Every structure is written in structure tokens, then in C-alpha cells.
Hints:
Belongs to the UPF0177 family. This is CAAX prenyl protease 2/Lysostaphin resistance protein A-like domain-containing protein. The chain is mainly α. The protein has one domain (about 1-224). Helix content is about 85%, strand content about 0%. About 30% of the residues are buried.
Amino acid sequence: MAYIRRQGLRIGAFILLLAAYLANSVLLEFATKYANKNVGLADRFIGAMLIMVAVILVLYTWLYHRQLKRYNPRHFGRQPFNWHRISQLLLLFVLMLAIQIAWSQLITRHLLPMPSNQSALDGQIQQLPFWNTVYGVLIAPVLEECLFRGFFFNFFFSKNSPWSNVFGVFISGLLFGYLHTMTFSVTTLFYASLGWVLAGTYLHFKDLRYSIALHFMNNLWAVL
Length: 224
């Protein structure tokens, strides 16, 4: 009974954290919608989004460090940067690029459909280029890595065992893919594969900053 109650609380907490992130992205969508219709209203939505980002970051940081202090058998934390780790991170970035290039080739050959959310994102960037780019490159990687890697592992797969590690990476990536498409489709597997690389990065380096950096590089490459 205690285990069920504890897991229920964790699921509830994760849903609330996810809802906060999604609500924040909705503010950006409203700002984009009114960018060419009502600049004043769009600016207010951007202001509300930035305030909410600051609040979410403080909340995420506090909860994450609180979780690690309570139970941290994998010794997640801050690992020093050195050339060996940086070279490994660059190789993982190359792996993410290879996945995207392979997927784009399948789309070019009409074997797979173009991701609908990518088309929507391109449209949003055209309407409100600066803030959509800032959000996609700088803000989203931090919030998504805290949510899908930091909290997810510590909430549901905190034990340092092969089973916990493998399933933690798999389910974290799958959830990451689903929330980028909001449906189960072949495109979900594309985003899930990127999520698996990011989750593996967090687990390998045991430092959330590495998966954030990898996510940042990937999103920056996408908008260049």
C-alpha cells in the first residue's frame, strides 16, 4: 500500500510538472498567433511566458536537487568537464545527426511522412522568429531534460540496476517521442530515438548538464 501511494504521488507530481511545461509552451503559441495581429497582446504573452519560465526553472532546480539528496544510488550530480567527456559528447551529437539524416532520406524517398509538428514549428518561427528560436534552442532543452531525464529517472527508475537503467532509458525516450507528436505513429519513433540518445547521455555522464548541452546542440543545428 505504501509503495502504491508513493508511486501515485510521483505520477501526480510528474503530471503537474509536465502540465506546467505545456502551459508555458501554450503562452508562446498565443504570442505567435497574435504577433502580426496585436503586437501589444503578443508582448504580454511573451512577458508571461518569461516569468513562468523563471518560476518553472526555480521549481525544477529545487525539486531535482531535493530528489538527489533523498536517494541517489547512481551518484547523479555535477561531473567535471574534460576533453575526454567533451569528445564523447560530440560523438553522441554526430549520432543524433546521423539519425536525422537517415530519417530525412527516408522522407525524401517518400517512404516516411514529414513530421507534422516540424511543419508547424517552421510556421511558428516564420511568424515570431526571435522568441520561437530562443525558446526552441535555449529554453526547451533545459526544461525538457529536467522533466524527461532528471525527474523521470529519479521518480520512477531510481534503482541502480540493469533493469531499471534499460527500462528508464526506453520509457523516457518513448514518452519524449509521444509528447512531440501527441500520437503513436512512425514519427513517434523518430523523436523517441532522439530521446533514447539523450536519456543514454544522462545515464552515461550522470550529469544533467551533458544531456542539456547535447539537446541544445541538436536544436541549434535544426534552426541553422
